[in-house]
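Follow-up to my post from last week.
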Amino acid sequence: MTNSPSKKHNQPISEGSEWTFDLIEKYDSEIGRVAKHYGLDTYPNQIEIISSEQMMDAYSSIGMPIGYNHWSYGKQFISVNQNYKRGAMGLAYEIVINSEPCIAYLMEENSMTMQALVIAHACYGHNSFFKNNYLFKTWTDASSIIDYLVFAKTYISQCEERHGVSEVESLLDSCHALMNYGVDRYKRPYPISVELEKQRQKDREEYQQSQVNELWRTIPEEQHTRRAGDRKMQFPTEPQENLLYFVEKNAPRLEPWQREIIRIVRKTAQYFYPQRQTQVMNEGWATFWHYTLLNHLYDEGKVTDGFMLEFLQSHTGVIFQPPFDHPGYSGINPYALGFSMFCDIRRICENPTDEDRQWFPDIAGSDWLETLHFAMQNFKDESFILQYLSPRLMREMRFFTVLDDDKKEMLEIGAIHDEQGYQKIREGLARQYNLSVNEPDIQVVKVDLHGDRSITLRHKRQQRRPLGDTTEEVMRHLHRLWSFDVHLESSFEGKVEKHYHCPPKADALPPMYGMGFNLSAI
Amino acid sequence: MSYIVDRRLNGKDKSSVNRQRFLDRYKKQIKEAVSDATSQRSITDLESGEKVTIPQRNISEPIFQHGEGGDRTVIHPGNKEFTTGDQIQRPESGGGGGGSGEASDSGEGSDEFIFSLSREEYLDFLFDDLELPNLLKQHLKGTDSFRYKHAGVVSEGNPSKINIVRSMRTSLSRRLALGGSARTRLKEARIELALLREDEINVERRRAILLLEEEIKALTERLARIPYLDTYDLRYNHHVKDPVPTSQAVMFCLMDVSGSMTQQMKEMAKRFYMLLYLFLERSYEKTEIVFIRHHTSAKEVDEQEFFYSRETGGTVVSSALKLMDKIIADRYPVDQWNIYGAQASDGDNWNDDSPICKQFLTEKLLPITQYFTYVEITPRTHQSLWDQYQLIEQAYGDQFAMQEIKDLSDIYPVFRELFQRREA
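User reply:
Got it. Predicted complex:
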C-alpha cells in the first residue's frame, strides 16, 4: 500500500460501516472515475442489491440470472444453503454476470467497505475483463445472453407442459452429462434476439428433421442407386469433438424439441466456456483492480483508515494461498495466482531486475498499464502463465512439481523453483490450466449408418491416464440420446486399451456377430 | 454509467422449484431416510425438521473424467525442503502430500449428501400416502359452522359490498349507450353550424343557424341529463353461506398404566401417540388431546402424568372406555367434533371385562367416533382382549383397526399400516 498522507486533503466519502443507496452511488462514481483514469473500458453496470437468500438462489443456478428448472440446481441450492447455515462457508461476496449491462449482485448484509470492494472488483474488474478479453469477445455475446436465457427458460417450460416434466428432466440429465463436450472451439456463435431466436427455432426444427431423415433414409429405391463405394464411406468423415452438436444434428430418433433442448444446453456450455478457460486471469485481474482502485482512493483521502483495514483484511483472505501441506489446501487458489501475476507484471514493468530483463526483454521497463491491458486482452490462463509467470514469482510461491507415475512406487519431485526448474514449472502449470488436458479427449469417430446405427467414440489417453469410473454412467446418458448402441474405445498411442459398450456386451464377441443384423445386407 | 437496483423485495425462493424437483426425484431415498430417522429420534423433536442423508453416488451427475493411474505431473505451491529428484512415499488416499492432485473440484469430498428438510417437508414425507379414514363428518344440520364463499357479482346488495370496478363499468356502458345517438348528432350539428358561419350571412342562413343552435342546446341538455352514476349501475359482491364440515378433532389417548406396563412400553405408546397427534394436526385446523389412563379405574390426566407417573394394580379396560364416553358427552358434542380414539395396552385385562369392552365399543363408542385404533405392545402371546377386539375389527373394519407392536422399530410401520390409504 502506497501510503502518502500528504495527499490527504479530501473529505472521506463516508465514515461508518453502514451503507445506503446514496453512498453506493457515490462510491460507484468515485471508483468509476478512478477506473477511467486507469483506462478500464467497461459495459454499463447494473448493480443489484439482494438478500443472502437471493444470493444463494443466484449461486445455485451457476450464476445465471434466469435459469431453466432442473433438480441439479436444487441439489446445489440445498448444499449451498446447508453449508452456509452451518457456517462452513461464507457466501461469495459477489456474483457478476457477463451481460450488457453487466449485472453485479451486492448482498445487503455487507458493510459499506465490502460493497465498495465488490463494486471495484466486479463492476470494474470483471466487467472490463468480460468486455475486452479475446475469448469473451469471440465466443460470448454479452448483449444477447439475457434474451437467450429467457428464451431457453420459456422453451423448456413449454416442453415440460407438453411432454411432461420427467421426460424433459431425463433429457436434461443426459445433456448435462455431456455438457463439457458441447463446446464449439472454432466457430463463433452469432448474436440474435428472443424473437429471432424463436423464429429460428421453428425453422431449425423443420430443417433439422429433414436433414436427419435424409441421413437415415432406408427407402428401398435408395439402395438400388447406392454404389458399393458409398457404403464404405466413413461417417463422420472427420472425428467430431463436439459430442452434443453431433448428437443434436445426427441422432436418429430424437424429436425436434429434444434437439432444441440439446442445443440450449450446448449454448449454455458455450457461454461458460471462456469463463472456464480464464479463471486465473479473470479473478486475478479483478482482484488486482479492486486492490489498485481502492488504494488509489485511499491515497486521495477519499476513504478512511478503518475502511482500508477492513478492506485489507478481506483482501488478504481472498488471496491466501495455503501451502501444499496445509490442512486447508485444495489446489492453487486462482485469486492468489492471478493477483500475484498481475502485480508481478506491473513490477517487471516498473522496477525490472536483471533476471526480468533476461526473461522478459519485451516488457521489462515498458509502460505497465499498457502491458497489463495487453496481457488481459490477448491470453487465456494457459497461454498467460506460459507467457508471464516469472522466476521471481515461482520462488515466491515456492512451486514444485510432483511426478506421479503409477508404474513407479515412489513419487518424484520433477522440478523446483530453481534455475533448472523454472521452465518446467512454467510449462507444467500452464498445462494444468489447459482444459483439453484436464478433460479426457473424446471424439466421435464412426457411425454405422447402414448397419446397426451404432455410434463409436474414441478416447485418446494422455500420459496413459484411463477414464474414471463414471464413464459407464455417461455412456448410458449418451445411449439415451442416441437410442442405438454406443461404443467407446479408450486407446493409448493407437492401441485400444479398453472398450466400453452401452448396452453392455462382452468384449469377446466375434465381429461377425454384429453383421448378421446389418440392415443393408438384408 | 451505473444503475443501482434494489432487488431485495423480489421473491427469494427462486430455487424452490428446483429444490422441490430434487426432493421429488429422490423421494424414495428420502422416505427411507425419514422412516429410519423416525425410529431413532426422541419424541420431543419429532416435530422439528430432519436431517436427511443420501449416499452421494446416487445423486451424482456423471461426466467424463480421468480416472486414477497413468503418469501425470502436478504443481503445488509452498515447497519447503524438496529438491529436484527427491523420491517421496506415495501418500495414502490423498493425504497431506497431495498425490492425487485433480484440481479442487469438491473440497469436502464427502461420501454422503446431507441436508435438512423443513418441518413441513419432513411431515410430508412421514405421512405421505397416509389418510385419515372417515375424514369428513356428514354436513351439519346445525348452522354453527359455515363460511362465506364468494359467489360472483349481483345487482342488489348492501352498500358496504359495492364492487366499484364493476359498477363503473356498467355506468360507462350505460352512458355510452344512452348518449350515443345524441352525441353523434351533436357532432354533426356543430360541424354544420361552423360551415354555415363561415359563409356570408343572410336571412335564410340566420334561421338555419338559429335552428341549429337550438338543436345543439337541446342535445347538450339531453346529454347532461344522463346521470353519471345510476342506481341501475350499482353492482355488489355477493357471498353465500357455505356449510363446512367440522374441522376440529379430538383425540383420546387411552393407556393402560397397570403394573404390567413397563416404562419402555409406555415410551413406545408415547411415540405412537405422538405420530398420531402430528398426523391429526395436519388434517384438522384444531386438534385437542384427552389423556385417559387406567388401571382398575380410569382418570383423565395431563400429558406429564400420563406418560411418566407410575401406578400399580389390576386392569379394567372398560373403565377407560366409559370415561371416554362420559367426556365426549360432557365436552365434545358429536356434531361439532371429529372424534378419534387410540388405545395402547399390553393386552392385560381382567378376563370378564373383555366382552364388556367389546360391547361398549360397538354399541356406544364406534357410532360416534371416526376411527378407533388399538395397538398392543407386547412381546407375549395375546390375551382375551385381543380376541374380543378382533371380532370388532371383523365387523367394523373401516372404523376400527388394531395392530401389534413388538419393539421400537415397529411403530412407524404399524402406524403406516393403520392409516394406509385405502381404495374407496
